[in-house]
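Standup notes
- DV: blocked on the single-chain target, sequence here:
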Amino acid sequence: MASKFDLAVWNVLAEKTEPAEMFSTVSGEKKLVQRFLIELFTPRGSIPFAPQRGTSLMHNWRRGTVSPVVAHQIFSIAVSEAGSNLMAEETESHPLNERFGGVGIDSVDILFDRIKARLVIYSRAGAMSVAVQISIP
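- DV (later): unblocked, structure below
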């Protein structure tokens, strides 16, 4: 079953995307965010030749009704798994603003049958990257 979720990304550095940039090569902090979100939403074990990749996020969320505390734990585990996977593939040759520096979980809420989380992703360059709001049915 394919995953379905709503995702909103805000660049808290107030960098504006021009229409010409919408289909350009992704680099810098945008690349970091893209890598993190792909890792976060990839179910662990779903890539045949890289079974360690991905996280337990979708598997744990689909287990059934969870409390707000459990929802926060599910996200805490998943962002830790995603961060570990990203750091394992990075080398010194990657630019600092494309390397994973950490993630903060601002909030995790349950609204009816959806989980809504707000994350802040940081690069190794030290700058705050973006705030990500995720809504998963």
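- Follow-up: Residues 108 and 117 are 4 Å apart (CA to CA).
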